[in-house]
Amino acid sequence: MTDQERWTAVDTYFTELLVPPDPALEAALAASAAAGLPPMQVSPSQGKLLMLLARLHGARRILEIGTLGGYSTIWLARALPEGGRVVTLEADPRYAEVARANVARAGLSDVVEVRVGPALATLAGLDGPFDFVFIDADKANNPPYLEWSLKLSRPGSVIVADNVVRRGEVVDPASANPSVQGIRRFTELLAADPRVTATAIQTVGEKGYDGFALALVT
Ligand code: SAH
Ligand code: DHB
Ligand code: MG
Known about the structure:
- The protein is built from eight helices and seven strands.
- By secondary structure, it is of the alpha/beta class.
- Helix 5 (about 95-105) links the parallel strand 2 and strand 3 (about 110-115).
- The site of S-adenosyl-L-homocysteine has 19 residues, from helix 4 and strand 2.
């Protein structure tokens, strides 16, 4: 058994026990695959983690940067209390259409708004504050996404960023990969910014070796 096979088997084990089959989420994955979207959504166990984090935080207004087919969006929307909302930003109009259909099938169209366009342009027109922000788009732009997330936050808001480890490449200061450089700069900004306290956690699983950063706005 390779490491990856073991990580996937363990994800499958926990997911089968702890993440019951959900027709809307499964349909979202199937429709996204059928439409040719790249399969880079969070795993089921990670989606449920996001849902639980948002729920234990009591998040009413959630911002997501990077929608893809809306899989993580549906998980986040499932955490909302009555009257809550998710705003999710997607650059690719075709992905956004798939996401809208997936969100509609999940019965969440009234609480999810998919905004199409480069996130940096959309962010400039949003009204905060958001209680919870999930950053999961083009990693090279994580530094400005952090700045916008802070502008659109309040003390007590939570910011989560996906894919901050990249198979360990994050520790290479000479990496030529703009995603890695974006994540490194993002982490340095988190470290230096007096408005946040943060940590990062390495993960393995069906998506390989990666990780999350978690920040609290103080
Ligand atoms: N959060 C999703 C996965 C997002 S994948 C999930 O877990 O289900 C990253 C997404 O960010 C892709 O759909 C990509 O099109 C989008 N993206 C890339 N650059 C972007 C930009 N500048 N603005 C908005 N979205 C962008
Ligand atoms: C990639 C992006 C993601 O958001 C992810 O979860 C996995 C991979 C990527 O750009 O390769
Ligand atoms: Mg991701």
